[in-house]
Write a structure and sequence with these properties.
This protein has 473 residues and is mostly helical. Helices cover 65% and strands 0% of the residues. The longest helix is centred in the middle third of the chain and has 38 residues, at 141-178. It is globular, with a radius of gyration of 27 Å. It contains 17 helices and no strands.
Amino acid sequence: MSSKEKPVAENFKSTADLTSNLGFQSSLSIESKDACEEKAYNPFEHRQVEHPTTTFGAIAHILKACIGTGVLAMPAAFKNSGLVAGVIGTLFAGLVCTHTVQLVVSISQKVCAEAKKPSMSFAETCGAAFEFGPKKLRPWSSFVKTLIDYSIAVTYISVLCVYVVFMGSSLKEVVDFYFPSVTISIQMYCVLTLVPLALLCQIRNLKYLVPFSTIANILLLVVFGITLYFVFLDIPPITDREMIASITTWPLFMSTVIFAMEGIGVVMPVENEMKNPQRFLGCPGVWNTSMVIVISLFGIVGFFGYVQYGDAAKGSVTLNLPEDHVIAQATKVLMAVVIFFSFALQFYVPMEFINRLLKSRQSNRFDNFIQISIRTVIVTTVVAIAAAFPNLELVISFVGAIFFSSLGLLIPASIDIVYNWDRGFGFLKYRLIKNILICIISIVALISGAYVSVVGMIEDFSKEPEHVNSTFV
């Protein structure tokens, strides 16, 4: 063997490359398949969460997000549907809301693997569904992400309007009973919340809001317990109530239920922070377990709340509690305090998006002034809208119809269609048919619920102030 034919150590490979030898052509590779192929990206393995949430903690967060003021509106929802239609409608809406969230989380996990990102927000997931969808729609991914970001911000601002109306209604009922000589309109009570809310919303760090959130959660449990006591106290016969209400009021029912149940804004943050995110979906899974509890609780409160109060059921069942009972009146005040403390936490969501927009500024000058101004303007706008339309039941229905039916139903079904367009829709395209049906349901709920709510708001807005005061509480 000549010196030219001697093997060089630095070129030596421990695995024989038989296929590269022209004299020995073989399809057999001695190298392992794992060494040849790149390992599939697993987003769960790349998530770096400083304080991951346990499975139980994730369920607690979901329940906290879904079981709030919305559950107290369920008796009013049943008033617009009847007992039988209400039970069926609550179960149906719950199943649809459960499924659409599953769609979003499933797509998010898939696009994270494709994009090689550990996690994505709701808006990022929607944009990525277009980015990894049909080629003709990929240029729209950035626009879709921005649109969803703006939509979430507007949605939470609309929820803040509900909160202001809730506080004003609760305070007015208590003051009217103990101080009948004080004749302050519901609109004025809404306006009176402006300064305290504007000051509270100047808190910019989320960790400083934790004590407020903790107090709100404790008080909410107390309120809920007392409310259920009065709901089940001397309950009248079921036969005294309508089984199926007029179909003309069904849109109000559906919009209220969607508003109460839909937690699309909190789902992705919870899943992204989980220690074992693979447990979020599946059976039983975090989401399915949470929604079984939510649907059951909403059905019970709505059913028995309507049996107890009938057509007198108000936008929050706490407003129906007996006026001559001190504990009941204290409950209304406590609920107003709960909403007040919860306001800043909900306010944080749109401000987080606005702060991301502000980071694009070239200069940091006047940052403090800009922050104070934006926060004050938003709170003032929210209070003004609430004072203009202080019918709690109609405001909840309108917000549910316009915003939550879009974000919670229409968007998830639409992005599932886009993402799976080139991947297939299963046997007889059942996924496509199912998603189209969800889109239709969402559009019908949006149009009908918004129409009925707006008509009701116009009628209330056109009434004389004296009559309005007695109507809204």
